[in-house]
Amino acid sequence: MDDYLVFQLYAPLAAWGGQAVGQERPSDDHPSRSALLGLLAAALGIRRDQEAEHQTLSHACRFGIKLPAPGLALRDFHTIQVPPSAKKQQHLQTRRDELREPKVGTMLSFRSYRQDALSIVAVTSTDERYSPDRLSDALLEPVFPLYLGRKACPPALPLNPEVIPAHDLRTALDSYCIAPWVSQLREKFSRYYWEAGMTSGMDHDFQTPRYDQPLSRQRWQFTPRDEFVSLGGE
């Protein structure tokens, strides 16, 4: 039997990343591994430049997700000022340095969000420094602000972390109590997602690559991993 830290993520808007190409900034319908690690790191007070701590946290933690309510897709149109292409080749320390050029251009982008999405997340850890109890305490009193993918997406409900002993991931996720009014968001069936190395307690319908394994927080680099998916759970 393992201890699982289980908590909820809900906000009017959330953004769970995806492969950004050109002007598109997509969002998946459930949290990415990189976003969940970033959430825990913020709660623990790990800064972005602390690469060793980020790697230790990443190696220790495994995530499973129950998706009772994937929410609705929202696509937002953005414009942003950018320097001339020649200046992009220079090393710039701040956004202010970037915009000191008298003439700046405009870049268009499209950012995707999920509206009214509810995710239940379970975490296991192999490192006592990041035990479920310590992670739970950190989520209750985070060092840095928490947000759901983007800084414009703070959680709208307490995360309500709970340490649940269970024989497998499915049991831990299904044992977590959702507030009755929040459960009104639920669809008839929930989907489950988990990563390799977890005792899932269910068969997967398929597995798919996901490019959300952090390689470097400072350089914002990611590598692929396999994600297992079960469809149609009650």
Give the helix/strand layout.
Elements: E1 2-14, E2 24-25, H1 33-44, H2 51-60, E3 61-69, E4 72-82, H3 95-98, E5 105-125, H4 132-140, E6 162-166, H5 169-175, E7 190-195, E8 206-216, E9 221-233
Parallel strand pairs: 2-5
Antiparallel strand pairs: 1-5, 1-6, 3-5, 3-7, 4-5, 7-9, 8-9
TL;DR of this structure?
The protein is α+β, with helices and mostly antiparallel strands. Helices cover 18% and strands 39% of the residues. The model has no long low-confidence stretch (mean pLDDT 88).
Describe this structure in words.
This protein is α+β, with helices and mostly antiparallel strands and 234 residues long. It has one domain (2-14, 29-70, 117-233): Alpha-Beta Plaits, CATH 3.30.70. 18% of the residues lie in helices and 39% in strands. The protein has 5 helices and 9 strands; from the N terminus they run ββααββαβαβαβββ. It has helices at 33-44, 51-60, 95-98, 132-140, 169-175; strands at residues 2-14, 24-25, 61-69, 72-82, 105-125, 162-166, 190-195, 206-216, 221-233. Strands 1, 2, 3, 4, 5, 6, 7, 8 and 9 form a 9-stranded mixed β-sheet that branches. Strand 8 and strand 9 form a beta hairpin. The longest helix is centred in the first third of the chain and has 12 residues, at 33-44. The mean pLDDT is 88.
